[in-house]
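From the methods appendix. Each design record in this collection lists the tokenized structure first, followed by the designed amino acid sequence. Records were kept in a plain field format so they could be parsed without special tools. The example shown here is representative of the layout used throughout.

RECORD:
FOLD TOKENS (128 positions):
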């Protein structure tokens, strides 16, 4: 009977589509991490710049100024990265659902054909 083969095909198809969406999500995550590292580098640079130039009071950044710049930059980058990741995850989920639905329709059609064959066999073997 073809039902166990259909179930195996469905599991393999779900695995393939999940690994494809994982690849897309991985790239989005890498971009997100890079985007969130940029404010960290900015804060580190400003703190290092402050530590090197302690003898020049005119060029020093106060802690409140560093916090303000870092907060502005982090909020902008965080919003963009969050939106990008949200779109990527949503698209990956949509692709997975569409592939799963397509596979379910194919399985249903195959089962329908199998049931029709069995009905025809029973009808032909039935004594009149």
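DESIGN:
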């Amino acid at each position: 009977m073809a039902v166990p083969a259909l179930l195996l095909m469905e599991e393999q198809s779900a695995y393939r589509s999940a690994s494809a969406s994982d690849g897309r999500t991985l790239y989005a995550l890498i971009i997100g991490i890079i985007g969130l590292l940029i404010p960290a580098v900015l804060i580190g640079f400003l703190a290092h710049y402050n530590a090197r130039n302690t003898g020049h009071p005119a060029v020093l950044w106060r802690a409140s100024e560093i916090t303000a710049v870092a907060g502005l930059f982090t909020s902008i980058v965080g919003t963009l990265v969050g939106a990008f990741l949200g779109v990527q995850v949503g698209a990956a989920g949509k692709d997975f659902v569409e592939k799963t639905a397509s596979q379910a329709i194919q399985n249903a059609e195959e089962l329908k054909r199998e049931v029709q064959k069995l009905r025809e066999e029973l009808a032909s073997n039935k004594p009149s």
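APPENDIX NOTE: The first helix runs from residue 3 to 52.
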